[in-house]
Specification:
Layout lengths: L2 E5 L3 H13 L3 E5 L2 H10 L4 E4 L9 H12 L5 E5 L4 H9 L4 E4 L4 H25 L3 E3 L2 E4 L4 E4 L2 E3 L3 H12 L7 H8 L5 H18 L6 E4 L3 E4 L2
Parallel strand pairs: 1-2, 1-3, 3-4, 4-5
Antiparallel strand pairs: 6-7, 7-8, 8-9, 10-11
Helix pairs in contact: 2-3, 4-8, 6-7, 6-8
Protein name: Two-component system OmpR family response regulator
Pfam family, one: Trans_reg_C
Keywords: DNA-binding, Phosphoprotein, Transcription, Transcription regulation, Two-component regulatory system
């Protein structure tokens, strides 16, 4: 049974989310604040975390928790579920490493569909690696989907599940332009153009932190992105 952590300070909303997830067959733990959730994560990582941005007196407690969870594991899927819907908050959440950002006006079926989509992506990564047992080498990039990791110039990159999917889609066929829709399809995720752009910016930032001269992810203006060796 997959285990989902719900970090939400509004008891009624947390209970509704817990009940909906349990009906889908998931194990669920609920935490009302950042410290209790972080303590639990240090003992056992969840298979997926659903986090509110504002947690009690901590206006951006969810952002802090996302950052802390990412330091514990780059691969655990994270979804923000929050009432805060400004572009600034959405971009901030994605830049911190969240895989998805949902607002609380979303329907339960839609929310569950996004949860299941994230798990499908995790499973697809595992199945693809088991089927091929191969690594992908593109110049100084090494993608190891079996271990869900990437290296640039032999230095590990801490990538989220979504970032791994996008990177694999770009690097698989160097020089081929991938539209934002194709990147969404490859990642098996429903996002908007701005969200894909945020993921690309975050990917570039992680490469540049290792190699300031990195320039392999090119923008094809009006079309999408390509991997250029």
């Amino acid at each position: 049974m997959r285990h989902i952590a719900v970090v939400e300070d509004e008891a009624d909303l947390a209970e509704n989310c817990r009940a909906a997830l349990m009906r889908q067959g998931f194990g669920v733990s609920v935490y009302a604040d950042r410290p209790s959730a972080l303590a639990a994560f240090k003992q056992r990582l969840p298979d997926l975390a659903i986090i509110d941005v504002g947690l009690g007196a901590e206006y951006e407690g969810g952002f802090d928790l996302c950052r802390e969870l990412r330091s514990l594991s780059p691969a655990v899927p994270i979804i923000f579920l929050t009432a805060r819907d400004s572009d600034f908050d959405v971009v901030s959440g994605l830049r911190l490493g969240a895989d998805d950002y949902l607002t609380k006006d979303i329907s339960q079926p839609h929310m569950l569909a996004r949860v299941n989509a994230l798990f499908r992506r995790v499973d697809a990564l595992a199945n693809a690696s088991q089927a091929s047992g191969e690594q992908m080498q593109r110049g100084e990039l090494l993608l190891d989907m079996d271990r869900m990791c990437a290296r640039w110039q032999e230095v590990p990159l801490d990538l989220t599940v979504t970032e791994l999917w996008i990177l694999q889609a770009l690097a698989k066929h160097p020089g081929h332009v991938k539209s934002r829709q194709q990147l969404m399809d490859a990642a098996n995720v429903v996002l908007d153009d701005n969200t894909i752009t945020s993921h690309i910016k975050r990917l570039r930032k992680k490469f540049i932190a290792v190699d300031p001269a990195f320039d392999c992810i090119k923008t094809a203006y009006g079309m999408g992105y390509r991997w250029d060796t």
